[in-house]
Amino acid sequence: MDTKKKSTNLQSTKVKLTNVDHEHVGRRLDNFLQSKLKNVPKSLIYKVIRDGQVRVNGGRKKPTYRVAYDDTVRIPPIHIKTDLKGDVPQKRLEQISESIIFENDHYLIIDKPCGLAAHGGTGQHYGVIEILRRLRPYAARLDLAHRLDKETSGCLLIAKSLRALQEFQLANDENRVIKKYKALLLGDVPSHLTKIESRLDIRRASNGHRQARVSEAGKYASTIIEKKESYGGNTLAYLKLETGRMHQIRAHCLHIGFPIAGDREYGSTDANKHLRERGLSRLFLHAFYLRFRTSLCDVDISSPLPAELKALLTSLN
Questions:
Q1: Which one is predicted more confidently, 214 or 60?
Q2: What is the CATH number of the domain that holds 30?
Q3: Model pLDDT, residue 289
Q4: Do 201 and 305 fall into the same domain?
Q5: Are residues 196 and 272 both part of a single domain?
Q6: Looking at per-residue confidence, does 94 or 80 come out higher?
Q7: Is the pLDDT score of 29 beyond 80?
């Protein structure tokens, strides 16, 4: 018998009314629902909110609504089909478990591998946060404090309590969080270019994916180029984020005419083909440094370049 065709129904057959307790106060509605509906894809959670099946105190709310203490949330019946093979593979569980590079009572940092999304969604059965919740089934709370693109590797922060999440978000809003990246840019970036500023707007590309583009209608974005190293006519740039827009670094590098090596959406098809022949099968963007301080702790962590990216630099040099 072909086990790949096996499937099971995961469903909740009754409407549930639940009241928000102190632990969940301030949480986004979509994240609150995900904590109550285990193994339900986030895309389905968005759908039932959008369709008005989820109500808070009898009214419709957006996914970004922050739940308040004693809010009454209506959770509708959920009917989904899922492959028995669609569970998180053991190999992924082991990979993420071994990728934890920092942990205390308040925060957890993983060295996220390339090719794994921060969270599950459309077309993604699971992401880092779902894997961690599988690894820590008795954890009171695990929330993404920020995000990395699926193809970006490096330091990704998870908060272990509402207070930890809120304190990090406050530090981020007050520019007290330092995030640094290493990216291989195609071409020799001039020495005088040390800062990229523009306004970025999010649009749908022809393939349906969301992309950031320079636009006067967009939000202000700033990227600092702290250091440059030359590798075979290309530039290894050390980049520091002053703002945190979606795809900011990738869009900014394209904007100045030096796209990131291996970038399929913002890069050069011909250059990427040449680099694939040299062994680069991914986006050359790595979040190598994260620094922040809250009243809970002081975190200063770094992550080395993955072996594939090191090997490419050696080859180019």
A1: 60
A2: 3.10.290.10
A3: 97
A4: yes
A5: yes
A6: 94
A7: yes
Residue 171 lies in a domain: no
Asked if the structure places residue 240 within a domain, the reply is: yes
Number of domains observed in the structure of the chain: 3
Give the structural domain span for 74. 9-82
DSSP per-residue letters across the chain: --GGG-EEEEEE-S-EEEE--GGGTT-BHHHHHHHHSTT--HHHHHHHHHTT-SEETTB---TTPBP-TT-EEEE--EEEEEEGGGSPPHHHHHHHHHTEEEE-SSEEEEEEPTT--SS-BTTBS--HHHHHHHH-TT-S--EESS---TT-EEEEEEESSHHHHHHHHHHHHTT-EEEEEEEEESS---TT--EEEEEEEEEE-TTS-EEEEE-TTSEEEEEEEEEEEEETTEEEEEEEESS--TTHHHHHHHHTT-PBTT-TTTS-HHHHHHHHHTT--S--EEEEEEEEE-SS-EEEEE-PPPHHHHHHHHHH-
Q: Name the catalytic one among 2, 149, 173, 298.
A: 149
Token reading at 207: 């393939």
Per-residue pLDDT tens over the stretch 34-78: 888 866 777 788 888 988 899 999 999 998 999 999 999 999 887
- Looking at the structure, tell me whether residues 295 and 225 fall in a common domain: yes
Q: 149 an active-site residue?
A: yes
Considering only residues 139 and 3, tell me which one the structure prediction assigns the higher pLDDT.
139
Span 281-289, mean pLDDT? 96
Whether residue 312 is found in the same domain as residue 216: yes
Question: Cα-Cα-Cα-Cα dihedral of 271, 276, 278, 283, to 10°?
Answer: 80
Sign of the C-alpha dihedral computed for residues 178, 32, 113 and 107 taken in this order: positive
Could you tell me the CATH number of the domain that includes residue 112? 3.30.2350.10
Full-model pTM: 0.75
Residue 122's pLDDT band (cuts 50, 70, 90)? low
User: Is the domain of 287 the same as that of 185?
Assistant: yes
**Is residue 273 included in any domain, yes or no?**
yes
